[in-house]
């Protein structure tokens, strides 16, 4: 699985874990199954209710329009996830990890015609494999990508952090925290780091500084990291 790093406006390095091509294909198959199932059920429903009557607009409104807008509607109103993407735990995001704007969803949706529909997915696969950031043509134009939300860092599930022998702690106040507090801080921190959610990191930093009654000497990202390391330093002594 590819990953890449971007620098935010706060000079924070965020690693994006790009969704694998296999996951994206499986998500597409799931979505295709849902679309086909809906079309079949809707067709029988129209016939059963006697709405067919040779009126094409009925089929267009009930079947054609929802199918046509399927990806745009789901990704826009479900935070970048269709049912297929949700099942595979992948999501459309901007390159900085934040939620795309509506016009970005529209751009990548419109370019599905070239990426997937007309080329049977061939163009999308080529761009994804060669790009290095998991971007098909639509993503390149929209400034988006697709990332995985599957857990990548086993380290975040433990309290232990390796420290250099000459490590110098800064905040002895961390000793008032309990193991469960540090575990929760670490979980929130790594999840926010993985998803590029800078607001959570900033909020977490503020709550920790208030709790410990300290004035951080570092930026929020480095401060939370320092707290985790300092706690390990004092509890390992």
What does this structure look like?
There is one protein chain. This protein has 237 residues and is mainly alpha-helical. The protein has 2 domains: 3-148, no CATH class; 154-236, no CATH class. Helices cover 57% and strands 8% of the residues. The chain contains 11 helices and 4 strands; from the N terminus they run E-E-H-H-H-H-E-H-H-H-H-E-H-H-H. The strands form 2 sheets. Strands 1-2 form a two-stranded antiparallel ribbon. It has a two-stranded antiparallel sheet with strand order 3-4. Strand 1 (3-7) and strand 2 form a beta hairpin. Helix 3 (70-77) runs antiparallel to helix 5 (102-110) and helix 9 runs antiparallel to helix 11. The chain is elongated and about 75 Å long. The two termini are 38 Å apart. The model is unreliable at 6-13 and 153-157 (pLDDT under 50).
How would a crystallographer describe the biggest sheet? 2 strands, antiparallel
**Radius of gyration, in angstroms, nearest whole number:** 23 Å
Please give the count of helices.
11
Order of helices and strands: EEHHHHEHHHHEHHH
Summary tags:
237 residues; single chain; two-stranded antiparallel ribbon; 2 domains; 11 helices; mainly alpha
């Amino acid at each position: 699985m590819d990953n890449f790093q971007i620098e935010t406006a706060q000079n924070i390095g965020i690693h994006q874990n790009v969704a694998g091509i296999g996951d994206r294909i499986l998500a597409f198959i799931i979505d295709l199954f849902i679309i086909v199932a809906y079309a079949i059920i809707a067709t029988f429903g129209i016939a059963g209710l006697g709405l067919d009557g040779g009126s094409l607009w009925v089929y267009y409104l009930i079947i054609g329009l929802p199918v046509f807008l399927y990806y745009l509607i789901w990704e826009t109103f479900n935070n970048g996830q269709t049912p297929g993407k949700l099942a595979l735990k992948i999501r459309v995001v901007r390159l900085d990890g934040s939620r795309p704007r509506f016009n970005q969803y529209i751009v990548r949706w419109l370019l599905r015609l070239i990426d997937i529909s007309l080329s049977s997915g061939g163009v999308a696969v080529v761009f994804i494999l060669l790009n290095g950031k998991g971007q098909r043509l639509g993503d390149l134009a929209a400034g988006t990508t697709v990332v995985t939300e599957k857990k990548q860092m086993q380290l975040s599930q433990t309290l232990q952090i390796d420290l250099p022998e000459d490590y110098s702690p800064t905040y002895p106040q961390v000793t008032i925290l309990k193991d469960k507090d540090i575990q929760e801080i670490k979980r929130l921190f790594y999840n926010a780091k993985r998803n590029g959610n800078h607001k959570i990191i900033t909020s977490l930093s503020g709550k920790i500084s208030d709790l410990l009654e300290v004035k951080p000497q570092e930026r929020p990202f480095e401060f939370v990291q320092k707290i985790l390391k300092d706690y390990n330093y004092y509890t390992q002594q």
